[in-house]
Amino acid sequence: MAFPPNFLEEIRQRLSLASAVSRRVKLQRRGREFTGLCPFHKEKTPSFSVVEDKGFYHCFGCGAHGDVISFTMQTSNLSFPEAVEQLAKEAGLEVPRASPEERQRAQRQATLRGALDAATKYFEEQLHGPAGREALAYLGKRGVDADTVSRFRLGYAPDRRDGLKRALAKEFPEPLLLEAGLVRKSEDGRESYDYFRNRVIFPIGDRGGRIIAFGGRVLGDGQPKYLNSPETPLFEKGRVLYGWAQARAAAGGGRGPVIVVEGYMDVIALQKAGFVGAVAPLGTALTEKQIEELWRIAPEPILCFDGDSAGLRAAGRAVGRALPLLKPGVTLRFATLPEGEDPDTLILHHGVPAMREVLDRARPLAEFLWTLELQAGPVDTPERRAAFERRLEDRCREIADRTVQSHYQRFLRERLFEYFRPKYNRPRVQPVTAGRFGGRRSGALPPVVEAPPQPPVPLGRRQEEVLLAAVLNHPHLLGEVAEELASLEFSAADLDKLCQEILHLHGLRPDLDAEALQLHLSENGYAAAVESLLKPQVLNHASFARRDAEVDVVLVGWRHARTQFLRRRHSGQVAEAERALADGMTEAGWARLKALHEEREDEDKATGGLIE
After folding, report:
1. Torsional class of 153: left (φ above 0), alpha (ψ -120 to 50), beta (otherwise)
2. In degrees, to the nearest 5, what angle opens at C-alpha 56 toward C-alphas 53 and 60?
3. Which residue spans of the chain are classified as CATH 3.40.1360.10?
């Protein structure tokens, strides 16, 4: 609804912006302003400023700007009307209704909500009564404890035709129960009956957590296994997400990623295990509206699918629906569960760390799109490769935003080049023997033209490649040299990025072997880099880096390679300082050269005089 401008201004005047911000950010006064660390991006030096007398905030780091209403929307993941209503309550103001029609609609919705709240209480009572013993035992077997039952307001619909209808009849007339989706009309002309019977009940909330519908899981072998409320004035199935309100609160507080899973029990299991950003669509494939709602909560939600063929098809449908909606700054990530497991069973059988590892391996949408199209068919002939390239081009064209589309095209072209380059880089075929009259023999193929030779790899880059190749083949080495590796300054940006990822992973999983380390890197966007580092062209320069090298040889060889790396870097720095002095004698230049010589002496001592 539209709010009168004077009403919004009254909210801004009554509420202190600094007080609202200080609930989320530690502020320090500096003159007429307040400063602190920005809540909208990670930073170590405060760049977030609150100007109380003018009623706005601004971050000089990420550009975030707004007033008390926009701050409440972003930090609490509320829509504009929800934020206004919350702040109006804090300010002691009554929210105006713009028209009689809106007042009538609001009153009608309030009545429907009342019926749904009453139904929720009825289902809760039945779960804990004699009729709910089997349902309560079912939840116990699924690992759902009493606290979780209470927090999610789980219930049970008895196996009776009109149990709920009779319980609510005094307060809510039948037409209202029909409109709320709690009862349905009989096709044979008999009286209406309860919509849910003999089912464990999962209340479904809106963005703010207010109950708007229910999902029911049948006990026994009845069909359908899961049943959702019909659509009502409050409930549009293709827009709603189970666990919505909890995920919004978690994202607003920075308490983990938003994770999309298949069903109610998966959401409950994940939230119970500490993954409080878990949500699920309501028994259908993820819709465009649900994707848009997810982006209102977090810019990169993780879609977590089963590892079987059905899970892959579901992921493919999600990719197809997301591509046209992509915009700068918002996307999806894809995590794949081990085959035969869902989040509920994975946590139950293997614990929280196993689930966290699955989420840590989530791949960007672009990477996942590449994998999907690559698995669509073989690419072992020029024609099939051309078809593969055409499919990728067609998928890129589905992206409406031109900027995002161009970046996808560039990314996929680079992947195509990296993927097919080894296949085309074959030894040259010998020329065919000349025929009697100087031409080719009948039926002979023309010679293959050799591709132009690749430029030689600079020595500095090759040294950096050798250091990382040794770590890829011998991750145990990091237990000895992690700090030494972290101190190196790689000149190649791609290798430096890979190095940081290796060190990050080692900090999380120091027990990873070579295969697990390389698999993790390959699945997270470093496949081309890993393949390149493990080629003979790199390993021929350093036998200690090869997979079959002895453990003690690896450590000695790596440290010697590091010494060579430091020597080259130091020599380059000294030469640069000497050139600067030749251009102009300055005190700063002499100080720089002196510092380099002192550093050289320190390195000599640390490496036993190996640096010359």
Report:
1. left
2. 120
3. 237-426
Residue written as token pair 């709010």: 3
Phi then psi for 492, rounded to 5 degrees?
Answer: -85, 120
- The H helix count followed by the E strand count for the chain is 26, 16
Domain boundaries for CATH 1.10.860 within the chain: 459-606
Buried b (16+ CB within 10 A) or exposed e, 531-563: ebbbeeebbebbebbbeebeeeebbebbbebbb
pLDDT in tens, 343-380: 888 888 888 999 999 999 999 999 999 988 988 888 88
User: Boundaries of CATH 3.90.580.10 in the chain?
Assistant: 5-91
Provide the pLDDT for residue 537: 79
Q: May I ask the CATH architecture of the domain 459-606?
A: Orthogonal Bundle (1.10)
Q: What is the pLDDT of residue 203?
A: 97
What is the architecture, at CATH level 2, of domain 102-228?
Answer: Alpha-Beta Complex (3.90)
Over the stretch 401-444, which tens digit does the pLDDT of each residue have?
999 999 999 999 988 888 887 555 544 444 444 443 344 444 44
End-to-end CA distance of the chain: 75
Q: Say how far apart CA 526 and CA 325 lie, in whole Å.
A: 26
Mean pLDDT of 547-569: 82
pLDDT for res 447: 43
Q: Which of 230, 216, 206 is nearest to 158 (CA)?
A: 216
Look up residue 209 and give its two tokens. Answer: 């957590």
Host H or E run for residue 193: strand 193-194
For residue range 29-43, what is the model confidence (pLDDT) as tens digits?
877 688 999 888 888
What does the pLDDT look like over 137-159, one tens digit per residue?
A: 999 998 899 999 999 999 999 99
Amino acid at 145: D
- Return the bridge partners of 384, or none: none
Q: Helices 309-322 and 288-297: crossing angle, nearest 10°? A: 80
Q: Which architecture characterizes domain 237-426 according to CATH?
A: 3-Layer(aba) Sandwich (3.40)
Question: Where in the chain are all domains bearing CATH 3.90.980.10?
Answer: 102-228
pTM for this model (two decimals) = 0.58
Domain boundaries 5-91, CATH class: alpha beta
